[in-house]
Specification:
46% of the residues lie in helices and 23% in strands. It is built from two helices and two strands, in the order αβαβ. The protein has helices at residues 3-17, 30-40; strands at residues 22-27, 45-51. β1 (22-27), α2 (30-40) and β2 (45-51) form a beta-alpha-beta unit. α1 crosses α2. The relative contact order is 0.24.
Length: 56
């Protein structure tokens, strides 16, 4: 599974549900996925929150 494939799945869910415009948040692997989604569809999101936790 690639980030691009995950982003495509997120976009499909948002389109199918009619949820746009929406806030988008991603944590860990979801952070780069959220960034990819927002880059592909910037007009569909109000806010983007990303968080990478690189802690022991």
């Amino acid at each position: 599974m690639t980030i691009e494939a995950l982003a495509a799945q997120v976009i499909a869910v948002i389109e199918d549900s009619g949820a746009a415009p929406a806030d988008l948040a991603g944590f860990s692997l979801g952070a780069p996925t959220a960034a990819a989604v927002a880059a592909l569809r910037p007009d569909e999101f109000v806010k983007l929150v990303r968080d990478f936790l690189d802690r022991p």
